[in-house]
Design brief:
With about 190 residues, this protein is mostly helical. The protein has 9 helices and no strands.
Length: about 190
């Protein structure tokens, strides 16, 4: 019997993303490149389907030096032109420039003794008592994602609007929005 999924059932790559990655806590290295990747890819997704980005993720990793913040922060106009000429990634100059700026913002946070993971966790909403009943019960943004967006903008990040930040929280397991009936949905908690 096939497992019921919130999304991804009709595409093997999307299915694997749902089953093995989405909504699960992210292991973060000291340089937080994993978070930089997720923030930037969520930004590249704006206006597109996540599956489009997912299909290009390996090309993004190669093009952006595995999202190493120290390397990406040093990109110059030649790198921007190299990326704009790469047909394997989404070639949007504003999003490419935002990725470079986001690497610089992340490095500045680290220089100030801050961690992006801590900033995101600071804005985590309270866990739900039970799984959403349908996709319509899942918000596109929340007060917490709006506050996170403002905090990120204040630190120099771009393409980090409230909807994008909520999608990030979902993707890295800060919120769990697997809908009821999905094989990964939580069981309701017993109160009392």
């Amino acid at each position: 019997m096939d497992k019921v999924r919130c999304f991804g059932a009709n595409d093997p790559l999307y299915q694997a993303y749902h089953d093995e990655e989405w909504g699960r806590p992210l292991e973060v290295s000291d340089d937080e490149r994993e978070l930089l990747e997720r923030v930037c890819l969520e930004g590249f997704q704006a206006g597109l389907s996540w599956l489009t980005v997912l299909r290009k993720r390996e090309a993004f990793r190669e093009a952006f030096d595995d999202f190493d913040p120290a390397v990406v922060a040093g990109y110059d106009e030649d790198d921007v032109e190299r990326l704009m000429a790469n047909p394997e990634i989404i070639r949007n100059r504003m999003k490419i420039m935002a990725t470079i700026g986001n690497a610089r913002a992340l490095n500045a946070m680290h220089d100030d003794g801050e961690r992006l993971a801590d900033l995101i966790l600071k804005h985590a909403p309270e866990p739900r008592e039970q799984a959403p009943l349908t996709a319509f019960d899942v918000p596109s943004s929340t007060e917490e994602s709006e506050a996170l967006s403002k905090a990120m903008h204040k630190r120099g990040f771009r393409f980090v609007g409230p909807t994008t930040m909520y999608a990030l929280m979902q993707a890295i397991g800060i919120v769990d929005d697997h809908i009821k009936g999905c094989w990964l949905a939580r069981e309701p908690r017993l109160l009392g």
